[in-house]
Predict the 3D structure of the following.
Amino acid sequence: MKDKIAEKLLLFIAFSAIFSLLLITFFIFQQGIPLIFKIGLGNFFSTHWAPTRGHFGILSMIIGSLMVTTGALVVGIPFGLACAIFLAEFSSPVVQKTLKPIIELLAGIPSVVYGFIGIVILVPFIREHFGGPGFSVLAASIILGVMILPTIVSISYDALMAVPNTYREGSYAVGATKWQTVRMLLMPAARSGIVAGIILGMGRAIGETMAVIMIAGNALKIPHSILDSVRTLTSTLALELGYATGDHRAALFACGSFLFLIIILLNIIAIKITGRK
Amino acid sequence: MTFRIGPRTNQIIAYSILLLMTLITVVVLFFIIGYVFKNGVGQLSLEFLTDKTRNMGKEGGIFPSILGTFFVTIFAIVIATPLGIGSAVYLVEYTRGGLIHRIISFGADCLAGVPSIIYGLFGFIFFVITLNLGWSIISGGLTLAVMIIPTIIRTTEEAIKAVPHSYREISYSLGGGKLDTILKVVLPTSLPGILTGVILGIGRAVGETAAVIFTAGSSLGIPTSAFSSTRTLAVHFYILAREGISMPKAYGTATVLIIIILLVNFIAYRLMHRFMERYY
Amino acid sequence: MIKVAIKNLSLFYDTIQALKNISLNVEKNEILGVVGPANSGKSSFLRALNRLYEIDYARISGTIVLDDTDIFTIPINDLRRRVGLIFATPVVLPGSIHKNMSYGPKLHRKLKESELDEIIFNALSAANLWEEVKDRLKDSAATLSGGQQQRLCIARTLAMGPEVIMMDEPCSGLDPISTAKIEATMLELKEKYTFILVTNNTKQAARVANRTAFFLSGELIEIDKTEKIFTNPADSRTDGYIRGKFG
């Protein structure tokens, strides 16, 4: 009897995650989608954002988000993969045990701290050595690249560790070096896990807000070089939500709906790739 | 003349590059922490930790933000922990693959990937506006709770899965029901792993900015009830740094924030380590 | 007197049939040996009798009657208390010896401290373990040796007050001295309990069992007095197994 009640109660609780997800979807869409219908897709995907005067174009922010995300991947993928390979294949257990939590600690540092380091070190450095305002695509890319490292490292590491040892033994047995084994055997075998890690890292980069606001400059125009200031979808949300009302607020939620869709899509791709049951 | 690098040389080059890149990553981490500490430790004093914030943060301490962070986090954890553990228990003990399992897993995975600004938007429109809870500890706590549920689910799920199946068989064969088995054998055995998830959830809640700034607000008063608006440490630090109010105070606040995060991660790591040693 | 009557028992894991139409009776206060090679269905047989197969999502057909009552009409916790099961590898629950011993009794009814102490004393004494652990009941059960742990598992089962005790290769991981102690315990206890002993050690069945059943590929090949099975079995496959031609 009490077992039956417990099971029902737990089933109810277990739906909390999916229920929250539906609730989030509903409220964000309900606030944002009507506006898109009202103004039309043409207006919504234009480059003219002046929400208090009826212009709700988010194209320049989409491009901004794309640029910093690409930049983050350019920084994050090589370092992330290098760390994962080094940890999984070239480290003794002792090194693994020390390095892995250290890299995971990177994920625990609050994003505002990354943004702050960007403001006090990276931005002035870029301004002095490369020119421009310093607050730029480049600064945001580097900081975001570091921020997505832990995601890429831990998922790629798990994928590499999941490759059966017999593969390695087989490869060494025919005289391959460690690096040849990694490059020709382990990387292809772990490919799907590595790709999933990169996609989840990409999701983090697109969704990151506070660090980007602090260092990207937030100018409302399409950047022409990586030293230009840039504004992302997320920065617009955070910068304007505090005071927006009426259609302006609805526009922010429309923008949020678009962001949410992209993130969910990336998540679904990553889940499909890793094929978890 | 063709020049070809042999596999041995190749191996050495590859190893050196990998080592170098790993070292850079580690150095970057230590640099970030070290840099903040170097500039911030000098700011720390009993007064800084226990004094009211004055003049928008230019003067005084961070006591209201410490309280705010504490209350918002406690609120989030108290709500998220039972939901997260309950979900994980159901996933592992009551489903065997199947559609329900896939739906619940999918929900948790997707929720884990949702960026914090979306939680901010949601919390703002749902808790603050629709439920009319206003900018308050309760709105911030509820928003963070939704955000950390997936962290707790995933860690608890792994911990419960690691409990040997034989323990369950023993409990059942001694006449234990399913609930007895879960409450008296499975959960106590996986407790360190579950705590790790809860502590990691605390870490996420403490460091979060985007999701709380639009739900808990940024009021600097000492909170008097669950409906008080409050400014968490991370939000306070963000405002100090971004608006350039006071760099020394910003460093001081960041140092406190990082110390909390380091502590949280250290405890979580130790617990997980002990748990793994016992069962893997 | 018949303690457990089993008729046309079949058991399926998904599409695999682990038991095929088994019918046999277990007599009160006997030690019934069950022998057979790996995957012959011996363990599944035990797991059917206390309905432990349910946690593996297996399905069952046929009837099992305990003291004239269909086991499917007995509340499951009660059934598992009455029909105890001891596993091949001794698995102690995390925690002290005392905690292991009190787990079962506390599940079934509220007990005073003194009642619990008495139950624990009786069960540990019956399992020939009391003298060895009486001063260290608060120690972690994991500090016991393998043989002691298996006797703790037996005591833990005895503490619930079972009627039938099923053992699934209880000595497979133990040294000869520990094995002898457990066999001696069984012989002492069969006055009070009914034993079903699954073993892949035919000599053990020969030493302690009153009757022996031979299982092969999920079928009951034959069941008879132990001397008969070991000296003059009716079926040539039993003979082949006993003589070590396969298995």
